[in-house]
Amino acid sequence: MKELILKQMQFEFWANWELLQTLKQANLLNERALLLFSHINSANLIWLNRLKEEVVSINLFQERTLTECENLLLQNNTNWTGYLENITEAELEKAITFNFPIDGTVRTMSKKDAIFHITNHSSYHRGQIISLIKGSVENLPMLGYIFFASKISEQ
């Protein structure tokens, strides 16, 4: 399971990095797209803090510049990689309890499920961002897992 989770988080970084490069090329960067990209990076940091049982001290919808998003993306990748390289299989099964920001409920889920949530959450918002920037960049990125995990076969 740990290897699969590591690969999922490698995909997470790859897809976010590819999207960042596309956002840098936008003729006019859509403010909502930038806010959603910042949100993806905030959520990644918040979830890592939750898994490490550390205080969450950032806003889920924090406004950032593209450069600030890039810096947080790189920081998140380093911190997530370090965390996942040292976690045990047993630790992945442990439950965490957290306050759900949308409705204030207290929820519990395994660390493993929280990590799967992160990659699904980001994919959802990356799709929204791509819809928002359509027409302001020459080529939209192909960010599906298939583009990360597969290679074109030589025939």
Based on the model shown, name its key terms.
globular; 155 residues
Helices and strands, with pairings:
Elements: H1 2-25, H2 31-51, H3 66-86, H4 89-93, E1 95-99, E2 106-110, H5 111-133, H6 145-149
Antiparallel strand pairs: 1-2
Helix pairs in contact: 1-3, 1-5, 2-3, 2-5
Shape: globular
* Rg from alpha-carbon coordinates: 16 Å
Instruction: Count all strands and give the number.
Output: 2
Strand content: 5-15%
Question: Order of helices and strands, N to C?
Answer: HHHHEEHH
Distance between the termini: 33 Å
Helix content: 55-70%
- Secondary structure category: mainly alpha
Low-confidence residue ranges: none
For the biggest sheet, the summary is: 2 strands, antiparallel
Instruction: Please state how the strands of the largest beta sheet are arranged side by side.
Output: 1-2
Q: Report mean pLDDT, rounded to a whole number.
A: 94
- In DSSP terms (H or I, runs of 4 or more residues), the helix count works out at 6
Describe the protein in words:
- It is a single chain.
- This protein is mostly helical.
- Helix content is 64%, strand content 6%.
- It is built from six helices and two strands; from the N terminus they run ααααββαα.
- Helix 1 packs antiparallel against helix 3 and helix 1 runs parallel beside helix 5.
- It starts with a helix and ends in a 6-residue tail after the last helix.
